[in-house]
Amino acid sequence: MTVSKYERFTVRRPLRDAGHPEVKGRQSPPMTFMSSNQVGEADVYVELGWVYGIPQNDPQMAERVLDYDQILLHIGMDPATPQVLGGTVELWLGGQLIVFNTTTAVFIPKGTPFGPLSYKEFRHPHLQLSMVLGSGDPYAASGRWAGGEASNAVPKKTQNFDFEQYVVRSPMREAGPDYVEGRQNPTMTYLSRTQVGMVDCYLEFGWIWDCPAPPIPKMRHDDFDEVVWHLGSDPERPEDLGATLQFGIGDELLEFDTTHCAYIPKGLDHGPLAWKEVRRPMIEMALMLGAGTLDEGWANSFFDLPDGARRGPK
């Protein structure tokens, strides 16, 4: 069987850090779905894991700091109520306590202390993702202890700044083409420059519960790299996509039936995306790197006009 020359841009099976400490109540070790170890060109690190209960003995309990921008994303996994997280989370950010109980994105600028992260309550399983921007190196993504060593002390705020400005608890709904059957319309934008003024990325995702019709068309982004995920929703089988889809990358059509991630370098054609079956609701998510708005990222990207010209989103 011939392997696609574009397979190297995809991660079908995650890496799992064998040295990661066991954490009760949380998928352990978590799943690394993008790093420079998996895709050499990737300058982004993506780790995700299911939360099954209130995590205990979690290394996230101490305050840390990274030399790169980071996104923490907690996703409620009920497609009928996508903004309900299923728990209440407490996160210290810059020494300020942030509390949320909805699907929430937190932008953490490089050098900003964050943690500990803990739960006040838990109601049902949900996903926790960490995305480090600017480096795909797992060691860079792990950061370092704030103050030089792990500490159980309550973090202290030293800046006269409201870190709530980096928290998005409710999405904008602006992304997506004309109405498509079988999927959330429009999708949910959880991070953009409109929401957080210093951000240079665009993060949106939406639920798919049946084969989308029409399929998502072919596109190309000339100026920005993109990361695309398709996430399964079964907490007992986290690598099962619950669907079978075909994803065009370059001039080839790749098929997937597991949770997976694809790194799309700028200038690389991708799409169409066509689903053969959807057995269980799933999530499609995209992160545009370097573009902070929908129009900036997707302008002149689509090939679906009769003459083949590209256009931006409507």
Structure explained in plain terms:
This protein is mainly beta and 314 residues long. It has helices spanning 138-142, 294-298, and strands spanning 10-11, 24-26, 31-34, 44-56, 64-65, 69-76, 84-93, 96-102, 104-108, 114-122, 126-133, 144-145, 167-168, 181-183, 188-191, 201-213, 225-231, 240-249, 252-258, 260-264, 270-278, 282-289. Strand 7 and strand 8 (96-102) form a beta hairpin.
Q: Rounded to an integer, what's the Rg over CA atoms?
A: 19 Å
- What's the CATH class of the largest domain, please? Mainly Beta
Alpha carbon gap, first and last residue = 41 Å
Shape: globular
Q: Could you name the CATH topology of the largest domain?
A: Jelly Rolls
- Total strands: the figure is 22
Topology order in helix (H) and strand (E) letters: EEEEEEEEEEEHEEEEEEEEEEEH
Give the proportion of residues in helices.
under 10%
Provide the CATH architecture of the largest domain.
Answer: Sandwich
| Biggest sheet features | 7 strands, antiparallel
The average pLDDT is 92
Number of domains: 2
The chain-level structural class is mainly beta
Low-pLDDT ranges: none
Total helical segments: 2
Task: Write out the CATH superfamily name of the largest domain.
Answer: Jelly Rolls
Strand content: 35-45%
